[in-house]
């Protein structure tokens, strides 16, 4: 079993509730409140451990909400590297409107982080012996857009596999200047990388353009209800979405990345890992609010659809 390090530079306390109706100006009375430790890298680590994998977690934590986050993570059995910052960890809020079955997701930008507070992250990356480094989620305020690029360069120099799941300038800067092992953009994020609109038929060739530039070895493009596409320099694999009853979209992308990375760490080939990632993403939408996917659901969907 390979060792995985998951990085969460912008973690969150995720709170979710139900409401009969969401109306502007008026108070919206909520019920059935749940709260979980969240944010991209934390979700990835939680799911890998749920699957039985060996994953360490590096995250930034500050303020009273940071103390609460650390308390929430402590029982999960994940080895933690906590990097202290001054500003408090963000709190994200998700409301499920029962009358329409719509979700409203409120996601703050996160704390202000200085270069000095970020420095210990790079110190740890220089010393970790992890086989896979997963960088997932947005960057907090004050953190340079080349932060994931610097991480990828360290991993590349040390012969580690770097897995990236982010968006916007952080995604573009990393792929413009460094080679990563695996990146998971959405359709919109891939369009931003190639600078044009894409339909589902043109996704594979467009992703191969990015690969031929030297940006990545593999690209897994998620297409929501239309499935996903796995692309390498010489192959394009399309897999339809697994049909499940949708409860919430929270954590689906993180679950996909976690499932793929865990599967690869177990020695499975890339296509098999891709299919397990899709099963994990589908399992995530079966759970409500900020609850993540369950091992039994992931493996059950994978066994039923590996075809």
From TrEMBL:
Q: Which lineage do the record's taxonomy fields give for this organism?
A: Bacteria, Pseudomonadati, Pseudomonadota, Alphaproteobacteria, Hyphomicrobiales
User: From what organism does this protein derive?
Assistant: Rhizobium daejeonense
Gene3D superfamilies, per the entry: 3.40.1190.20
SUPFAM superfamilies hit by this protein? Ribokinase-like (SSF53613)
The text of the family note is: Belongs to the carbohydrate kinase PfkB family.
| Name of this chain's protein | Phosphofructokinase
The terms describing its cellular component in GO are: cytosol
Q: Where is this region: Disordered?
A: 18-38
Question: Which Pfam family is one of this chain's hits?
Answer: PfkB
The keyword Coiled coil is annotated on this UniProt entry = no
Basic residues: bias regions:
24-34
Which keywords annotate this record?
ATP-binding, Kinase, Nucleotide-binding, Transferase
């Amino acid at each position: 079993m390979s060792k995985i390090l998951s990085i969460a530079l912008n973690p969150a306390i995720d709170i979710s509730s139900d409401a009969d109706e969401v109306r502007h100006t008026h108070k919206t009375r909520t019920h059935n409140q749940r709260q979980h430790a969240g944010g991209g890298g934390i979700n990835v680590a939680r799911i890998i451990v749920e699957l039985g994998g060996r994953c360490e977690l590096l995250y930034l934590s500050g303020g009273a909400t940071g103390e609460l986050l650390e308390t929430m993570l402590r029982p999960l059995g994940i080895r933690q590297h906590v990097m202290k910052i001054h500003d408090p960890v963000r709190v994200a809020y998700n409301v499920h409107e029962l009358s329409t079955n719509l979700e409203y997701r409120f996601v703050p930008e996160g704390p202000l982080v200085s270069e000095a507070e970020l420095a210990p992250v790079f110190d740890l990356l220089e010393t970790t012996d992890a086989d896979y480094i997963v960088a997932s989620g947005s960057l907090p305020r004050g953190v340079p857009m080349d932060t994931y690029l610097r991480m990828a360069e360290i991993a590349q120099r040390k012969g580690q596999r770097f897995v990236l799941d982010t968006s916007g300038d952080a995604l573009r800067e990393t792929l413009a200047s460094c080679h990563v092992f695996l990146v998971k953009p959405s359709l919109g994020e891939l369009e931003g990388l190639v600078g044009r609109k894409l339909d589902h038929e043109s996704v594979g060739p467009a992703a191969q353009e990015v690969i031929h530039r030297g940006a990545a070895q593999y690209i897994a493009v998620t297409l929501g209800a239309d499935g996903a596409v796995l692309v390498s320099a010489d192959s394009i694999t399309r897999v339809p979405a697994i049909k499940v009853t949708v409860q919430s979209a929270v954590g689906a992308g993180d679950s996909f990345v976690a499932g793929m990375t865990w599967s690869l760490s177990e020695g499975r080939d890339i296509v098999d890992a891709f299919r397990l990632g899709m099963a994990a993403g589908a399992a995530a939408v079966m759970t409500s609010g900020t609850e993540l996917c369950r091992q039994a659901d992931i493996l059950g969907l994978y066994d039923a659809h590996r075809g």
